[in-house]
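Milestone 3.1: sequence recovery, worked example.
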């Protein structure tokens, strides 16, 4: 059925080493957490439910092909899982759960999955046996607020999980070849290659945010298509969902019936468009410097030429609103390698959404911080900015 044997990786794990369990239990109690059994069953037509809990039938990959349910049951404790970036939704746990369960026991992981507490991981548990496991959109594009402890708290939908190490998770599969395992293990936290299983080239990019998408248009790094195009592509070719996706530009044509993906795309889109860009934390930037930086951004630094407010991208500024305005890699001084693997061969101007929240920067993470971003464009466009001007621009970027 599948043209591509290995699909988008994100089988999260679960919980970091926790020292003060009594404090954790108290924090859970203060959150007013409840058991999953106390919640009303979500409406499966609702976009939030689809984003958080719908696997699109991708158990056919994660269970049937990769057999990760076996690995989780035997080898993945909560402590181990948190090390690869899995997050736990504290709001569905009893207040004493962490204090009364062994966080070094894989059986606790199975119990967390049974309670729908592992963000982006859905499993079928009979008794204490994990029979199948699948993943959802939330595994890469959600995190938690760490209100209980690191990796445990309330969900933050749309936030990129830059702690997640998808490659390390996929590499746990007993069905991979040593060569495949080497590639996946090389990716590192926050990076994923959605094209490796298409062209065989190893070149992961950063997991992007899924918030602040309204009005942006052509939301991928290279503007291959709008949100629903990418949702469809990821669900079928990466997550391993039971659906259909075709893109003649890339030579991809996958048909599976029944299609468990396409009918859900409209509701999923509406939920994603509802996810607002999170504001910067209070006192996280110098307001006076940010105002000076904004003037530079719109003036002498010429940033707003491409990063056009309020979306901070020019992707819809071309003569044809149905086609993205894109830039050649050389034009912006960006490595062409990833673009050449895509349908457009060029890059979209990235909208500057909550930059404070998700360093590093650029599609491949080559800029460790915002000053590195400013330095890149200062050199690329011969701006000759002073150190003070660069610092002011950084403060403005932190404020967006």
């Amino acid at each position: 059925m599948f043209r591509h044997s290995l699909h988008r990786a994100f089988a999260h794990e679960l919980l970091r080493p926790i020292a003060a369990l009594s404090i954790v239990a108290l924090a859970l109690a203060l959150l007013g957490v409840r058991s999953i059994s106390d919640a009303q069953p979500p409406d499966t037509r609702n976009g939030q439910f689809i984003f958080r809990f719908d696997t699109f039938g991708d158990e056919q990959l994660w269970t049937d092909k990769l057999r990760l349910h076996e690995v989780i049951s035997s080898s993945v404790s909560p402590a181990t899982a948190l090390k690869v970036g899995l997050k736990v939704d504290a709001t569905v746990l009893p207040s004493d759960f962490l204090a009364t369960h062994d966080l070094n026991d894989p059986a606790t992981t199975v119990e967390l999955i049974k309670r729908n507490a592992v963000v982006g991981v859905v499993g079928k548990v009979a008794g204490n046996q994990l029979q199948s496991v699948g993943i959802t959109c939330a595994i890469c594009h959600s995190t938690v607020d760490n209100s209980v402890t690191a990796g445990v708290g309330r969900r933050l939908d749309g936030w990129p999980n830059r702690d997640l190490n998808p490659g390390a998770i996929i590499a746990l599969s007993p069905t991979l070849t040593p060569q495949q395992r080497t590639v996946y293990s090389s990716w590192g936290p926050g990076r994923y290659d959605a094209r490796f299983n298409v062209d065989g080239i190893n070149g992961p990019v950063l997991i992007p945010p899924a918030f602040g998408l309204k009005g942006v248009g052509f939301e991928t790094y290279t503007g291959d298509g709008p949100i629903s195009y990418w949702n469809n592509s990821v669900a079928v070719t990466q997550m391993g969902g039971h659906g259909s996706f075709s893109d003649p530009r890339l030579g991809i044509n996958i048909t599976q019936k029944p299609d468990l993906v396409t009918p859900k795309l409209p509701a999923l889109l509406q939920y994603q468009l509802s996810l607002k860009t999170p504001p910067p934390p209070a006192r996280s930037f110098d307001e006076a410097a940010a105002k000076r930086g904004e003037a530079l951004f719109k003036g002498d630094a010429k940033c707003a030429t491409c990063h056009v407010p309020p979306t901070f991208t020019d992707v819809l500024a071309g003569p044809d609103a149905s086609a993205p305005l894109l830039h050649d890699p050389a034009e912006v001084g960006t490595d062409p390698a990833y673009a050449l693997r895509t349908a457009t061969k060029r890059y979209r101007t990235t909208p500057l959404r909550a930059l404070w929240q998700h360093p590093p920067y650029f599609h491949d993470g080559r800029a460790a911080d915002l000053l590195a971003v400013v330095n890149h464009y200062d050199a690329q466009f011969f701006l000759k900015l002073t150190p003070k001007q660069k610092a002011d621009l950084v403060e403005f970027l932190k404020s967006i």
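The beta strands are 88-89, 121-126, 129-135, 142-144, 152-153, 155-157, 191-192, 205-206, 245-247, 252-254. The first strand starts at residue 88 and ends at 89.
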